[in-house]
Amino acid sequence: xxxxxxxxEPRDAAGVADVFYRSVREVALSDYTAxxxxxxxPRRWDAEREHQRSGDGRLVLVAADEAGHVVAFIDxxxxxxxxxxxxxxxxxxxxxxxxLYDGIExxxxxxxxxxxxxxxxxxxxxxxxxxxxxxWNART
Length: 140
Ligand SMILES: CC(C)(COP(=O)(O)OP(=O)(O)OC[C@H]1O[C@@H](n2cnc3c(N)ncnc32)[C@H](O)[C@@H]1OP(=O)(O)O)[C@@H](O)C(=O)NCCC(=O)NCCS
Prior knowledge:
The protein has a four-stranded antiparallel β-sheet with strand order 1-2-3-4, sandwiched between helices.
């Protein structure tokens, strides 16, 4: 899957919300029970709620497929907190999260953010490479 990594735009809100929901409810099922993923994301968000979050001043990068549909996203708060990194089921395991992390790390450096941190899921802890130990080990 060929993707383009670019900054979030308001028109992406519904796509981001959809990826968030399906990523937790489907991708995270590999490591969590059905009850756990329901507790993680109890229900779908609409575009308006998503835009309230994605448009609150944080940096959001999306990966869009050739049709322009959002298939993954990452966001970074001004204090260096990576709040979310989520990939749609059809796009998982293809290096897309790693591309997004590289993009957010570059942006963080440009903004003078010297430390990145997060609360990681089991899936985000797995990566063995230095670059892609994002989330739990994402510190510069
Ligand atoms: C975590 C997540 C974003 C990774 O997305 P992805 O696009 O599949 O990740 P990538 O293909 O870029 O892989 C990144 C690294 O994770 C490893 N990885 C990805 N999926 C894996 C799996 N199912 N099992 C083992 N390793 C896996 C890759 O091998 C790679 O490691 P490497 O760079 O050391 O080789 C995705 O699994 C997801 O959306 N999970 C559900 C939501 C979630 O847990 N988000 C994180 C919250 S902190």
